[in-house]
User: Which sequence fits this backbone?
């Protein structure tokens, strides 16, 4: 299992992480090693085994459809890096 | 005061031997004078004294419970309204939580006094506490060694008698392994037994909160207050909570204890093996029936875990975008630059590595080979336990293959580090409960045994642990440097 530098850059793009060239080499080595090791799983035949997504086979509980949350916009925005008049600020997205 | 149990502390408070304010000041002082351990990220003196005053009033009015006025520390993964909740990360270095985790609420209602927030591996990803942005925690038994992780700050604080009780979380062993490394008792409850609301998510199908304390008895008190249904966590079980402290004195005879071959194989330290063998002999003397069993898929648990946990983490940590809270980079060029630079600056190396692995495992073309395969292996591991518990009451073995390793010893190789979780990880994949109990020493460092039970048998696990602690004194031993 070998991960190329191009693959590292593609994964970092998907993960929204910045990876420079030097780091990419390190990631390629680390990820290749981890993924090769993970492939031990192929030792075991899992045909017809139902995937287990969760430890509990329980029914999703439903609650009554009523408003329980109060408006706390000011409190929540107080911890935001940049806001203006109740809005979260981001760099310009539309030219 | 340092070595008193919860019930002794409660008796002292009730009899007016000392007040909660005095108790709180005493432990705050201890935390202050042992900062070399780096066990705490935030110390909450003012808040603690306020809570202690309230507790003293309740005790005076005889409106108190068993935990009223008892000092406690929270792992810095639990949100506390108005308090910095960093999760061991630069990303949340200045994050002041706007609400309480349910665990925090419950322990406040129980009257506990919160002394501070403990250090941890960043976003609970680690087995040594070396991944904290706030620096590694030291093991109080030997400060050249790690305390374990990720709840290393909580474990070190309890072991060094800086606080009588602490909360932790366990995704792949993060309560049990540090408890073992620090010579204390730690319980990972059944998945869904304790609410995850307000507990910063790492891998949501594996994360579970639990107690760390000197003894099983103390863990039982803390567990009592933590457990129970919470409508704000849809994975939290709506099952009655047993009276954990009431069943600790039951006899153990005729209990069947399974000893898995796979937990005593290659890689297990000979000193640890010897200590665990003595613990098994003790159980046999109590009239327990010892039965060799197999958990054949144990070895596959770690790779399956590192696919499932990283996949869930890559999804969970996508919420840290530099916009709504957390770290934001300077002068972003555009939105993409804002995301990637904020995240790259905010997350540490191991967190980024796991996000990358998880993103890869979930990406188009690889999903079946990694994520789906890992979920199928998870089913096999769970089935191993299901089969075992048809014939045994408990499964007993070591918590970790060796005692606490040296700081820096395993940092260069992620896979070697991951392997130190071999005995704890399957338990999270299956969702069953397990407790780590101190049971001896090896090279001057504590050794923990792990006792695993079937779903919702926390009461039985604590019962066994308490009986063992009535007969032994490993849980009463404290690191010489931190004992008076």
Assistant:
């Amino acid at each position: 299992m070998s991960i190329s530098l191009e693959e590292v850059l593609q994964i970092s793009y998907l993960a929204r992480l910045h990876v420079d060239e030097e780091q990419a080499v390190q990631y390629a080595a680390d990820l290749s090693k981890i993924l090769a090791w993970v492939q031990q799983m192929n030792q075991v035949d899992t045909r017809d085994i139902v995937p287990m997504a969760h430890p509990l086979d329980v029914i999703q509980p439903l609650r009554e459809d009523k408003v329980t949350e109060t408006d706390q916009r000011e409190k929540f925005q107080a911890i935001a890096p940049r806001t203006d008049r109740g809005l979260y600020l981001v760099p310009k997205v539309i030219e | 005061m340092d070595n008193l149990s919860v019930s002794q502390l409660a008796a002292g408070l009730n009899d007016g031997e000392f007040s909660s304010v005095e108790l709180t000041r005493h432990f705050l002082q201890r935390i202050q004078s042992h900062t070399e351990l780096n066990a705490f990220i935030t110390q909450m003196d003012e808040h603690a004294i306020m809570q202690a005053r309230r507790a003293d009033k309740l005790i005076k009015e005889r409106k108190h419970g068993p935990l009223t006025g008892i000092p406690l520390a929270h792992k810095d993964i639990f949100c506390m309204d108005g308090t910095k909740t960093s999760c061991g990360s630069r990303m949340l270095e200045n994050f002041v939580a706007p609400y309480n985790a349910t665990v925090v609420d419950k322990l406040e209602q129980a009257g506990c006094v919160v002394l501070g927030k403990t250090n941890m591996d960043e976003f609970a990803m680690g087995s040594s506490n070396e991944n904290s942005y706030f620096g590694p925690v030291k093991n109080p038994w030997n400060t050249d060694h790690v305390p374990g992780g990720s709840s290393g700050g909580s474990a070190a604080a309890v072991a060094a008698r800086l606080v009588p009780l602490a909360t932790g979380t366990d995704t792949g062993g993060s309560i049990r392994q540090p408890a073992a490394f620090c010579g204390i008792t730690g319980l990972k409850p059944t998945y869904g037994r304790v609410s995850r609301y307000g507990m910063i998510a790492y891998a949501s199908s594996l994360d579970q909160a639990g107690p760390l304390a000197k003894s099983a008895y103390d863990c039982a008190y803390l567990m009592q207050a933590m457990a129970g249904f919470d409508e704000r966590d849809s994975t939290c079980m709506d099952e009655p909570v047993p009276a954990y402290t009431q069943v600790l004195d039951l006899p153990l005879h005729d209990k069947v204890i399974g000893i898995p071959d796979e937990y005593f194989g290659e890689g297990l330290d000979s000193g640890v093996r010897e200590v665990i063998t003595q613990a098994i002999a003790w159980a046999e003397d109590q009239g327990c029936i010892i039965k060799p069993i197999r958990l054949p898929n144990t070895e596959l648990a770690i790779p399956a875990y590192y696919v499932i946990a990283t996949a869930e983490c890559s999804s969970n940590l996508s919420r840290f975008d530099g916009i709504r809270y957390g770290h934001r980079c300077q002068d972003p060029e555009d939105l993409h630059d804002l995301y990637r630079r904020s995240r790259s600056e905010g997350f540490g190396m191991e967190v980024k590595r796991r996000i990358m692995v998880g993103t890869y495992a979930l990406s188009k073309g690889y999903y079946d080979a990694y994520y789906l395969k890992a979920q199928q292996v998870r089913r096999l591991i769970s089935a191993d336990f299901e089969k075992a518990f048809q014939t045994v009451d408990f499964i007993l073995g070591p918590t970790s293959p060796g005692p606490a390793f040296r700081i820096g010893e395993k940092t260069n190789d992620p896979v070697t580090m991951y392997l130190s979780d071999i005995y704890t990880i399957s338990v999270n994949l299956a969702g069953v409960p397990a407790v780590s109990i101190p049971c001896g020493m090896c090279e001057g460092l504590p050794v923990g045994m792990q006792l695993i039970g079937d779903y919702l048998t926390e009461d039985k696990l604590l019962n066994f642990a308490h009986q063992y602690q009535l007969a032994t004194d490993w849980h009463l031993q404290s690191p010489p440097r931190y004992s008076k």
About this structure: The two ends of chain A are 42 Å apart (CA to CA). Chain A has three helices and two strands. The domain at 5-43 of chain A is CATH 1.10.20 (Histone, subunit A).
